[in-house]
């Protein structure tokens, strides 16, 4: 049961293309980069 609770956390790192050992600064940097790409005012859906 404990492993089930840890799995979503790993998925969050994968969404940011980071390893679970990433530093706080790496997490912030990756989040900001992805947020800029997919921001609703900038992102244009290809469909």
Automatic annotation (TrEMBL):
<dbReference type="InterPro" id="IPR042162">
    <property type="entry name" value="AtJ13"/>
</dbReference>
<dbReference type="Pfam" id="PF00226">
    <property type="entry name" value="DnaJ"/>
</dbReference>
<dbReference type="InterPro" id="IPR036869">
    <property type="entry name" value="J_dom_sf"/>
</dbReference>
<dbReference type="InterPro" id="IPR001623">
    <property type="entry name" value="DnaJ_domain"/>
</dbReference>
<protein>
    <recommendedName>
        <fullName>J domain-containing protein</fullName>
    </recommendedName>
</protein>
<feature type="domain" description="J">
    <location>
        <begin position="11"/>
        <end position="47"/>
    </location>
</feature>
């Amino acid at each position: 049961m404990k492993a089930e609770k840890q799995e979503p956390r790993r998925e969050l790192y994968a969404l940011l293309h980071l390893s679970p050992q990433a530093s706080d600064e790496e997490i912030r940097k990756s989040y900001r980069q992805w947020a800029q790409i997919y921001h609703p005012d900038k992102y244009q859906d290809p469909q």
